[in-house]
Design brief:
The complex is a heterodimer of chains A (about 220) and B (about 300). Chain A has about 220 residues and is α/β, with parallel strands linked by helices. Chain A is about 30% helix and about 20% strand. Chain A is built from nine helices and nine strands. In chain A, the strands form three sheets. Chain A has a four-stranded parallel β-sheet, sandwiched between helices. In chain A, strands 1-6-7 form a three-stranded antiparallel β-sheet. In chain A, strands 8-9 form a two-stranded antiparallel ribbon. The mean pLDDT of chain A is about 95. In chain B, helix 6 crosses helix 7 and helix 10 packs across helix 11. Chain B starts with 5 loop residues before the first helix and ends in a 9-residue tail after the last helix. Classes of the chains: A alpha/beta (about 220), B alpha/beta (about 300). At the A-B interface, loops of A face helix 5 and helix 6 of B. Bound molecules: iron/sulfur cluster. Iron/sulfur cluster binds next to helix 8 of chain A.
């Protein structure tokens, strides 16, 4: 899923300072799962904003909505009926959702309430970790199912570097060395000998964000 | 392969090579390099110029190389893949060769998290082994990474670093094998304080026959004090400083610890020299360049051979 976290409330309050009628829009997809932008978080954030503004002696009207998904035109259109009555949409979906709001409601400012962070999963209650950078050319079958692009701090393909220490990355003792994980896994699979000794060719990053904004068109699905 | 490299010639002659390094200043003053250079005159066969080591912004390695070249040195251009993509890398390789630089050391570089600009973008378009492949392709095939021909190939002696002390230990010789397969011709190792571990790695390297494909220069660093030893042990990732070394420094009064560090360094070189497969030493006297000649003299490495 896409993992995001709330912006500090002070930042949000500053961002919406000049509005007194806003829509606060959550999303029931990824950001709800990672407890950053679902229905519950919409409620909590609305109260926090109201409180902050009250302290300031300025009331604010907040219309709370939580859409099925903010990355889908069909759902984003669900606020069309009342959007024009408000001065801004504060979206606590991921960056995709904020941009969909902006694209659909041309004259209403779309503001981000979250910092969208990464594609990952949950490790335990309250902990999420990155797994994929969306480079557009998956090589997980060659690296024991562990991604060197994401999990090595230097995205090395022929790691580990000289900074790997007791399974940890040189960047931080809290960070696992991606290459130690790859090596351990290749060994467990009995693939170490043939995979590790091979030189990994230079990657074509043009399928990654480096090639510009990406788009997938499926002719077979087009209406 | 014959390059213009003095280091390559010394190695080919079968002499025990000596290299050292010089960290460029955090400013535009060329005299800092010249002064450091003066301390190494007649003491080394080649000198590395670090490339924004520990991710701290410094004068570019290539510029400092040129300053030393003008003084008569054979500089080794260190190049990290942290800050440059393949376009900049290939361009700098051509530029270095055009300016008469004969050696390159291919590194991935310290992560910028350590440095003075942790906010920087992390490039890593290619890794250090792929940098070796890149330089070799440019030199031997006269081609860019996109397979297009170039007008004149950059003729560089290709080096890399290896850390026999980093984890996982059991893949460290294999990783050297990968570098050899990629085309590396000389290796400078991480600073050696743990001679037993180094000997073990070297044995593996010799068993694999890698010492015949790659000239291995063993890295040494004199410790200035107990504090420096402790710092390197605990704060520098991938550094192995055994307690015995720190204890030995502790055994002498504070003002004599530097001298003891130099003594340890000289003894280390003497032991390294006897190890099969070790073809030279790389003396890294960190901000202590004035001691390199004393170490080289003490280890009986002077005068340097004429080539
Ligand atoms: S320590 Fe491991 S994860 Fe960190 S940069 Fe080096 S190889 Fe990559």
């Amino acid at each position: 899923m896409i993992v995001a976290q709330a912006k500090p409330i002070e930042d949000i309050v500053t961002m919406i300072d000049r509005y007194d009628k806003i829509i606060l829009a959550g999303c029931k997809a990824c950001v709800a799962v990672c407890a950053a932008g679902g229905e519950k978080e919409v409620g909590i954030l609305a109260s926090a904003i109201t409180l902050a503004r009250k302290r300031d002696g300025r009331a604010i009207e907040i219309r709370e909505v939580t859409l099925e998904r903010q990355c889908d035109p069909e759902y984003v259109e669900q606020i069309r009926g009342f959007a024009g009555d408000y001065q801004a949409v504060l979206s606590i979906a991921c960056g995709v959702g904020v941009q969909y709001m902006a694209e659909h409601y041309k004259t209403i400012p779309a503001l981000p309430g979250l910092n969208t962070s990464f594609m990952g999963g949950s490790l335990e209650q309250g902990v999420w970790s990155e797994r994929c950078q969306g480079c557009g050319q998956c090589i997980l079958h060659l690296t024991g199912g562990i991604c060197p692009v994401t999990r090595c701090s230097k995205s090395l393909f022929n790691g580990p570097c000289g900074g790997s220490s007791k399974g940890k990355c040189e960047v931080s003792p809290e960070m696992e060395c991606g290459w130690q994980l790859i090596i351990d896994r290749l060994k467990a699979l009995g693939e170490f000998e043939n995979r590790f000794t091979e030189l990994f060719p230079i990657k074509d990053w043009s399928t990654s964000r480096d090639g510009g904004q990406r788009k997938i068109t499926r002719e077979d699905m087009k209406a | 392969m014959k390059t213009g490299s003095r280091l390559e010639k010394v190695l080919e002659k079968g002499a025990f090579a000596v290299t050292s390094e010089c960290g460029p200043p955090r400013g535009a003053d060329p005299d800092v390099i010249r002064e450091k250079g003066k301390l190494l005159e007649g003491v080394v066969d080649a000198v590395n110029i670090t490339d924004c080591q520990t991710s701290v912004v410094r004068m570019s390695s290539l510029s400092a190389c040129l300053i030393l070249k003008e003084m008569g040195f054979d500089p080794i251009l260190q190049m990290v893949t942290r800050d440059r993509n393949r376009i900049a890398i290939q361009s700098d390789v051509l530029g270095a060769a055009a300016l008469g630089i004969n050696n390159i050391l291919c590194l991935s570089g310290d992560h910028q998290r350590f440095g003075d600009h942790p906010q920087a973008k992390n490039v890593y378009d290619i890794d250090s082994i792929q940098l070796i492949m890149t330089v070799k392709k440019m030199r031997d095939e006269k081609k860019f990474l996109n397979d297009q021909e170039m007008t004149k190939a950059p003729v560089l002696f290709i080096g890399a670093a290896e850390n026999p002390f980093a984890d996982p230990l059991e893949i460290r010789a294999l990783r050297l094998a990968k570098k050899a397969a990629a085309g590396v011709e000389f290796i400078q190792t991480q600073c050696i304080f743990n001679l037993d571990r180094f000997a073990e790695w070297m044995r593996e390297v010799v068993d694999m026959g890698l010492h015949e494909k790659v000239a291995i220069l063993a890295g040494v660093t004199p410790l200035k004090s107990v504090g420096m030893g402790k710092y390197m042990k605990s704060q520098v990732p991938g550094m192995d400083v055994p307690d015995a070394v720190i204890e030995r420094l502790k055994g002498v009064p504070k003002e004599k610890q530097g001298a003891e560090g130099i003594k340890i360094c000289i003894e280390t070189i003497q032991r390294l020299r006897e190890m099969k497969g070790v073809r030279g030493v790389h003396i890294m006297a960190i901000e202590w360049e004035e001691k390199v000649s004393e170490i080289a003299k003490g280890a009986d490495l002077l005068p340097r051979p004429k080539v």
